[in-house]
Amino acid sequence: MTPQEVQAAMEGGAVVLDMRPPKPFAKEHVPGAVNFQFNRADLADRAEMALPQEGSYIVHAEPVPIAKVAVDILTKAGFSVTGYLDGGVKGWKEAGLSTEELPLIDVDQLEAGLDGYRVIDTRERFEFKYGHVPGSEVLEWTEPWSAFEEVDDAKQLALVCGDQVRSCYVASVMQRAGKDACLVFGGMVDWVERGYPVEKSGSGAQAP
Amino acid sequence: MPDIQEHRLLDARGLLCPMPVVKAGKEIKSLADGEILKILATDRGSIVDFPAWADDTGNELMEWHEQEGGVFVFFIKKVEED
Amino acid sequence: MIFKQFRFEPLAQASYLVGCPRAKECVIVDPIEDLGAESYVLDAADLGLTIVAVLETHVHADYVSCARELAEMNGVPHYLHEAARGLVKYEFTPFEDGHVWEVGGVRIKAMHTPGHTPEHTSYVVTDTPRSDDPWFVLTGDSLFVGDVGRPDLLLGDAAMDVMDEGERAETQYRSVTEKLFALPEHVEVYPNHYGGSTCGGVNMSGKATSTIAFEKRFNLAMRQGTPQEFAAFVKETAKPFPDNYGHIKSYNLGLIDREQLKQAGV
Prior knowledge:
The complex is a heterotrimer of chains A (208), B (82) and C (266). Chain B is an alpha+beta fold. Helix content of chain B is 27%, strand content 32%. Chain B is globular and about 35 Å long. Chain C has helices spanning 37-46, 67-74, 158-161, 165-179, 212-218, 227-236, 245-253, 258-263, and strands at residues 2-8, 13-20, 25-29, 50-55, 78-81, 93-95, 100-103, 106-112, 121-127, 136-140, 188-191, 210-211. In chain C, β2 (13-20) and β3 (25-29) form a beta hairpin.
């Protein structure tokens, strides 16, 4: 699909599924795109666990062979996929269309500025219980999008998971809904490696 | 470190989190109390996922280490709930 | 460090993915058309890695390379040693001996090891989080496990061949003794071919990895005392020429296109 066709489909309610890894996605992506990292082994399983079944999707994956495989996997998993974005981000910009950025911070920056963020942990409850960033709240990545879209962002939202795959997915849904959100690259693995304080069970108050 | 002999091997390489833990959960169901499941995973999130999962399910995470090539190896001993 | 050796058994050819799991980036070395650009792209994606460059040790004569396609598909440079300028008829990104690529924590250094071909380059790889010492070297067709690359795959055109068989053999000998064997002994050797390939002689091992230490001691070709004895030994122990090497080399140099390659029966 050309950028213009994708844009028209988006206006009609289609969702662009950006399947690149978190870093390139965060740098720049089609406005309103939802990030969902590609792999062959378990894309179908993860999609079934998290993505809304209804609605139509447009795949953005680079290069083209990945997009084709992704369309195939998602279609077989029962999702309605209209097609894939031809030309990627480069083609999108060449068509004169604007892109969006998702701010990235690392765990050092999170630790230094902890009070200024509302930290949302997107892992499963048992992972959160075992150890999380002090003061963070759990909101599982498998929750419906409405749950992500309702989170209050008076303080900037900082999304966290084990590394950054699930959190990037949730961050992108939040950004799509106009929320002020950033992604903590490196997640709990880096946080623990740094030796930063870890809270066990505790509040775990359900966001929002 | 002494070699641990596993009863079952789960190859979760290439799976993104939380799938290694999800698959391990399924796999361990068919093991007997005391049997050991060895898991290979490439997802970095596994480092925090498996300890948390073991703690939550009551199974014992005996040992884990990183192998060459970014592969993480976990040894989980099944502990039957009373 | 993420390291994968891909093996295409029918031609006993090995290609490589070398990357950093933290930076989530990788390079592909010597990709082969028989596996296809798509398969490298999917393998990298499965590992969550972005391909940032395609490197070749040399312009191959025994298999069709998909380096150009892979680089273009990913919008990244296709690297060959600058000695390939004037030989290769398409655009590529040249580098000098000693050029360094930093792929996250992985450091790749170009070591020009001519002989098998004039532009042939080996890649010395260091995993900086683990040590400042190099860990392994991708030797292409210069040094094999148990053997060396043959010096006689010529096109019969002095301008394209640059060196004749004798010069190639001598240069090869010096590249291995003075450069590769000067690396620390623990450095692992990963070649572009292994036993079964016709790019080397009859002593090529079916094992696709070794060390500098082992090859120094037990590589028969390298135990010849002088470049001349080495050249004679290599000639005696040569295998039949690779199938279609003239056409394949011409295609890889950009002298002929796909259509012409097909018409030549490849």
